[in-house]
Amino acid sequence: MSQIFTGDEAWKSKTVYQIYPRSFSDNNGDGIGDIPGITSRLDYLQDLGIGLIWLSPIYKSPMDDNGYDISGYQEIAAEFGTIDDFDQLLSEARKRDIGLILDLVVNHTSDEHPWFVDARRSRDSEYRDFYIWRDASENHGLPNGHSSVFGGPAWTYEAATGQYYFHEFSHRQPDLNWANPKVRAEIYKMMNWWLDRGIAGFRMDVIDLIGKDVDQEIIPDGPNLHDYLQEMHRETFGDRKDVLTVGETWSATPQTALLYSGRDRHELSMVFQFEHVTQGWDKLYGKWRPKPFDLVALKSVLSKWQYALAQDGWNSLFWGNHDLPRAVSQYGDAKGFRTESAKMLATALHFLKGTPFVYQGEEIGMTNAPFHTINQYKDIETLNMYRLHLEAGLSSEDFIAGANRNGRDNARTPMQWSAAPNGGFTTGTPWIESNPNFSEINAEVSVSDDTSIWNYYRRLIGLRKELPVMVHGVYRAFLDGHDKIFAYSRTLGSERICVMANFTAHSVSVDVPDNLQTHGRSLIANYEPVDTIGREITLRPYEAFAVLASSENRGDNPPAS
Ligand code: TEU
Ligand code: CA
User: Fold this and answer.
1) How far apart are CA 478 and CA 501, in angstroms?
2) Cβ atoms of 61 and 71 closer than 8 Å
3) What spacing in Å lies between the alpha carbon of 275 and ligand 1's midpoint?
4) Could you write out the DSSP letters of every residue in 61-77?
5) Annotated catalytic, 205?
6) Which atom of ligand 1 is nearest to the CA of 380?
7) Domains plus CATH for the chain?
8) 472 — alpha (psi -120 to 50), left (phi > 0) or beta?
9) Residue 115: helix, strand or coil by DSSP?
10) 450 a catalytic residue
11) pLDDT digit string, tens, across residues 484-533
12) Nearest protein Cα to ligand 1, atom 17
């Protein structure tokens, strides 16, 4: 077996931790998380064992979309700190062998970015062509009927210059014109500036949109997408070792994932795909009317991706992020079996092939926000959609029920550090209400309890660094049609791991297929250790475990590749 922990793929055995700076740790009492706050928590992250941090945007921004609207790519938002604070974070992280991945938001800027401020001034502005302008159409005014993700048309009229500009998100997030080589050159320069500072990579916001053709209304997966990504690779991170790049691509399929992350493609390390997320959404109303949980559908998506990227490409693995509900609320049982189900979900995900991403608070089993009035929500998407759904005749209660399940603020309530007021996130008034369950659910309690969710994550993250089979093993799923149990194995040479997870609050007895039967040693379990999977087994509510087969009993071998 080749050495797996060196070279330009060192990130394959690492676990990434996502920080949403606004909600992580407030160091100066203004109620907003900040960079010094993050630096003060690095020991916590080092103890957890993570190798990389993905920082949601920290740049200068009017915060219309909490920093995903950037007005200065090489400046730090004043409320988050200074560039010195950033350098301090970078060097303190490096001391702990933790790399920083920045959020690259280059599909659009803020309307306060100097480029747009100048562009909107006059058709002759040297920055006019940095954005996407179209004349009014003869009949209905708007250049076409394309809608913005946050509601309303994707076109806004500028009376001063008599044209519309395109914005896939809020009207305060005008899309950059990637067809303009000057735009691309500016972005590559900016990326290199951050890379030279010592960052470990980029998470690329809605990167599947940059090759768009607005006139044909081909927005995701547009005709120029892969050319631009190959150019970006060449011009920026291509020659740098140990840089991780992950594209946020809601449109990705297993086929396009191989284009982004295939080894001879020279584009990205991996992408975030969202099929396992959207399979749970209503066809018509989307995430605001989620469907009942369906394990068979979820497993079929996860397995499809595992198989498709088995030989080439690389998967990212995640249950949550800053746009999604809390994992334990969405896929587990946050009320009856919070600890068991949070550990079960961690087990099911971390033994898959790919790079795991842990969203802040997931490691202590934080839950969705118990908001009951619209005034408690802060998210631009939720607030816009509330207005639009009510205009369309939906009741406020129905909308709030959907937002409770799937709204983005579920992930954005302050990180719960301790039982102190506001969970120790701030000494002031937090910008968004804390989840009142911080007195029971918090990092202090979780770190000090050996049986906690946190210590369970710590063991899982550690196992990935020790076991090549966890990083490179071939995936095989079992019991595909079973609607309560997720079961799979990973095999590498003579090593084999068998994983079983009960996704229900009931005991479930299963007849175990021959090739899943195992005897060996318990790697991890959320009840008692399990070292044998016999012909029949009963899993208790949300029980999950992984068994490392002893080499004389490793079951089937995958076909040689
Ligand atoms: O998200 C992309 C995006 O499309 C989300 O808004 C998501 O689709 C939506 O929540 C589904 O209803 C990225 C960022 O992760 C998000 O926070 C930003 O708001 C968005 O891009 C714009 O930059
Ligand atoms: Ca602060």
Assistant:
1) 12
2) yes
3) 15
4) ---TTTTSS-SEEEEE-
5) yes
6) 19
7) 471-553 (2.60.40.1180)
8) alpha
9) helix
10) no
11) 999 999 999 999 999 999 999 999 999 999 999 999 999 999 999 999 99
12) 323
